[in-house]
Amino acid sequence: MDWQSLWLTIRLAALVAAILFLIALPIAYWITYSRWRWKFLAEAVVALPIVLPPTVLGFYLLVALGPRSPLGHLWQALTGHSLVFTFQGLVVGSIIYSLPFAVQPFAASFAAVDSRLIAASATLGASKFRTFMEIVMPLSVSGMVAGVVLSFAHTLGEFGVVLMIGGNIPGVTRTVSIDIYDQVQALNYSSASITAIVLLAISFGLLAFVYALNRKVLAVWLWK
Amino acid sequence: MRNVSSESSASSAVERDIQMTSGVLSLHVRKRFDATKTSFELDVAANVSSGVTIIFGPSGAGKTTLLECIAGLLRPGSGQIAIADRILFDSSRKVFVEPRQRRIGYVFQDLALFPHLTVEKNISYGIRSLTPENREQKIANIMDSFRISNLRGRKPGEISGGERQRVALARSLVTDPCVLLLDEPLAALDATTKAKLIDDLRCWNEAHGIPILYVTHSREEVFALGDRVLMLDAGKIIAEGTPDAVMRR
């Protein structure tokens, strides 16, 4: 069992879930309430990582974050090193890769809030921001927790994107799934099996938590 | 359309306006109404003075659409809405005041109480800008008037239908609205509870004297509450006058 890879993966997933929480909130809000006629195009872009092969996404990210791209060039000028094959590069790639797993549960839970409550809040003098903070968000807790947990779990198990933009540098970009791949390549099945079981247990625990939330088992508890 | 909501100096100006403009609600609203079973053009012109004006008519007559236009929840196709000299909507001058700045109380048919907030927090929601002392005083007074002081810490899901109705009324009235809109607020109540609430509402309005627009299907409520009736059908006023005169038709 490579504890270094596990710790790196958990750090990566936690950081990505935290950043995604902040990024996905305004995107989900806009998707839920915007009446822009071309909104479906933006929704399709956000959902792309669900259907795109991770290697394709990884390839585009490698090109977009590489030192020859404007973003990669700017990053290199600011930090003195490239964004690809670094932990920061992994974070950026994972945010894009897991974006729909946060945005979609957030948007679904915002849309489920009774529009009469939002109208009532407006007639009582509340701004859209206050309505969002005091009415929409508290009534969407289970969807928001589900979004954060799913983006954490999805980042935990990513492989193709990580391999493309992070490579396989121990302690820097080698995540658990790449470690399993390495172990299998080296015919070290017992070690691969232990790591795979740990990943399976964590993923199952997180998904069970999300489903419990959806059945309101935990939602009731969270409200109290 | 000029959107007045973003004017930052608004709050003191709005407060001043509210003091000045408690008066007649004048409206001329046109709005295309399309639903699955019916479609028509809402075209209503009326002056609503203080007292209870009942909007009476069959389902699909456009009663709720009219209230939503007045509250600013729907934007009329054309027309004007004003309270005394304060213009809330004027299509020719491209004015549309956002619902949050209209100071119009609205009690929804399904009440729309915030389920995650206690009764006290529901009631204080619209008066957050007051000082804590004033806010506390107003909450205590309104809870006392509507006999809901004992429900202070409970959530809407933990109280009865009649109590929820009183909380919804208190939540709207505590903001000192210039106009009160009630969309069939008593529809689901038994006769005794309804009679008590009608008394509460009458008492409150004797003290405050603002225009109240009250949507109902119930003839009993028309006679119990109404000072005046607007009978609406397919988006048009087909009769108006005292309850006796209109309901005898």
Structural class of chain B: alpha/beta
CATH architecture of chain A: Orthogonal Bundle
Global outline of chain A: globular
What would the average pLDDT of chain A be, to the nearest integer? 89
CATH C-level name of chain A: Mainly Alpha
Question: What does this molecule look like?
Answer:
The complex is a heterodimer of chains A (224) and B (249). Chain A has 224 residues and is mainly α. Chain A is 78% helix and 0% strand. Chain A has helices at 3-33, 39-51, 54-65, 70-79, 87-111, 115-123, 128-136, 141-156, 160-166, 176-185, 189-214, 217-223. By secondary structure, chain B is of the alpha/beta class. Chain B has helices at 10-21, 63-71, 119-124, 132-145, 161-173, 191-208, 219-225, 243-247, and strands at 2-3, 25-34, 39-48, 51-56, 78-83, 86-90, 95-96, 104-107, 179-183, 211-216, 228-233, 236-241. Chain B has a 6-stranded mixed β-sheet with strand order 1-7-6-5-2-3, covered by helices on one side. Chain B has a 6-stranded mixed β-sheet with strand order 8-9-10-4-11-12, with helices on both faces. Chains A and B meet through helix 6 of A and strand 8 of B.
